[in-house]
Design brief:
single chain; 3 strands; about 55% helix; three-stranded antiparallel β-sheet
Length: about 170
């Protein structure tokens, strides 16, 4: 095996070339590690708590709806739900209206866990913004919402003719 880089491999982005993206990457990694620490005692992995919160107050939500809402891959959601089901937090059953669809609901154990999940998220929020003034928190939130909107607008969807989209070239 050669130590030479492949000719057609794109260059690895550097923090100097993409400082905002690099900062988002670092923050997302740190945020996920902190979330994992806070969720460990609840027997949850990061992301599973979001599924539980999405199921709060909604009985028999379709697995496909969760995939769309969370913008995740079907296999990722299915794997997380399987783990939550094994832990006794959710139950899945075939839809009563569509044999191809699976409905998901919280179990009583999953519903009881929601207060602890919310408390973990509140602590995650406190730790994430610790040291920021109210004005700085507000400004950070507005900036993050703007970045989210820009990223959402930049998503390449099938048939997208925008530059960078699958039909628009680079």
């Amino acid at each position: 095996m050669s130590d030479q880089p492949q000719e057609d491999a794109p260059p690895t982005p550097t923090p100097q070339a993409a400082p905002v993206s690099a900062a988002i990457y670092r923050l997302a990694r740190l945020h996920r590690v902190l979330a994992a620490q806070l969720l460990r005692d609840l027997e949850l992995h990061p992301g599973q708590e979001v599924l539980l919160m999405e199921l709060d107050g909604v009985d028999h939500r379709s697995q496909s709806d969760l995939v769309r809402t969370l913008m995740l891959d079907h296999s990722t959601v299915a794997k997380s739900l399987r783990r939550l089901e094994i832990a006794g937090f959710v139950f899945r059953r075939p839809s009563g209206t569509d044999r191809r669809s699976v409905d998901v609901s919280l179990t009583p154990r999953g519903a009881a866990l929601l207060a602890d999940v919310r408390a973990a998220w509140e602590r995650l929020e406190r730790e994430t913004v610790r040291g920021l003034s109210a004005a700085e928190r507000h400004a950070a939130l507005r900036t993050l919402e703007g970045l989210e909107e820009a990223a959402r607008n930049g998503l390449a969807l099938p048939g997208d003719a925008r530059p960078g989209g699958p039909d628009g070239g680079a």
